[in-house]
Design goal:
- The protein has 7 helices and 15 strands.
- By secondary structure, it is of the alpha+beta class.
- The protein folds into 2 domains: 116 residues, 2-Layer Sandwich (D-amino Acid Aminotransferase, Chain A, domain 1); 150 residues, D-amino Acid Aminotransferase, Chain A, domain 2, CATH 3.20.10.
- Strands 7, 8, 9, 10, 11, 12, 13, 14 and 15 form a 9-stranded mixed sheet that branches. A 6-stranded antiparallel sheet has the order 2-1-6-5-3-4.
- Helix 5 crosses helix 7.
- The radius of gyration is 19 Å and the shape is globular.
């Protein structure tokens, strides 16, 4: 842990080396938690309303007490205050974790939640497209079930832990995840897009992929420019091998292009254009935030 840094627990800023959980913590015991990772540019949490709404939707599904979570504006202010407290002046990753109060075994004794905010510096500014394309492969040992829970980021992430180990063992930059029907639906921590003959495709949410915040922004930008985004049940290997471009999206990195899937190589012509749209949108978002 970096010395003299702070986190925020239920709105109170604490030294990051202080104990904040007991062994009875339900996130630790049962994975009874949701989380969001948010890129903050110039101390502004990007597209925070969308992050907050996804949290609310997930809490509703898990029957957590929504009223025990502060309003969006309050949580946003807590994030900004914590960034300032830690004297972070560049881009920042903020992690907001919501977990049910201690008590009970599988059956909780309360549905109220606690919330934890952590911040850490990022090494890049803004949504920069990677200069070197990603090399990826497909993780096939375990598959992700498509369910009501699959679109949210929760603390039960063993599939992704194992996929991350596979990525490390194979010396890849990312790995692609299969759903229970055998379709390729997403990356380790990102949504998947592919381009064929200037047509743009991505996995539909019902396929089991995460309902990504950056996925939402990119689809909106593309539709505003008149491009059609085809949402499918996923992709197979032949579909991806037949594509001209593949890119991944998440809230922290924005858009990252893929140069290689196994022995196949890809371009990034349209992906560069899409990333420029994202950069302009981010500037506009920050400008609107500062004026509000």
């Amino acid at each position: 842990m970096i010395p003299n840094t702070y986190l925020s627990l239920n709105g109170y800023q604490l030294n990051a080396d202080k104990e904040v959980f007991k062994s009875t913590n339900r996130a630790f015991r049962y994975g009874d938690a949701l989380f969001e990772t948010i890129r903050c540019i110039q101390q502004i949490p990007m597209w925070f309303h969308d992050h907050y709404q996804r949290l609310i939707n997930g809490m509703s599904l898990l029957q957590m007490d929504i009223k025990s979570l502060p309003p969006s504006e309050v949580l946003q202010d807590h994030i900004i205050s914590l960034i300032k407290k830690n004297r972070l002046y560049g881009d920042v990753r903020a992690r907001l974790t919501i977990y049910r109060e201690d008590g009970g075994l599988y059956t909780p004794t309360s549905n109220k939640v606690n919330y934890l905010i952590e911040v850490s510096p990022l090494q890049s500014d803004g949504y920069q497209l990677n200069s070197k394309g990603l090399f990826v492969d497909v993780y096939t040992e375990e598959k992700k079930a498509a369910s009501q829970f699959s679109q949210f980021k929760n603390a039960s992430a063993l599939l992704f832990v194992l996929a991350g180990i596979f990525k490390q063992q194979q010396n890849k930059d990312d790995v692609l995840i299969l759903n229970s029907d055998g379709w390729i639906i997403e990356g380790l921590a990102s949504n998947l897009f592919w381009i064929k003959d200037e047509r743009i495709y991505t996995s539909m949410r019902s396929s089991g992929c995460v309902n990504g915040i950056m996925r939402k922004q990119v689809i909106k930008l593309l539709k505003n420019k008149g491009w059609t985004v085809n949402e499918t049940s996923g992709a197979d290997m032949s579909t991806l091998f037949d594509a001209q471009e593949i890119f991944m999206t998440n809230a922290i990195q924005g858009i990252q292009w893929v140069v290689g899937l196994q022995d196949k190589r890809f371009y990034c012509k349209l992906t560069k254009e899409i990333n420029q749209l994202l950069q302009k949108s981010a500037i506009s978002y920050r400008s609107d935030f500062q004026e509000s």
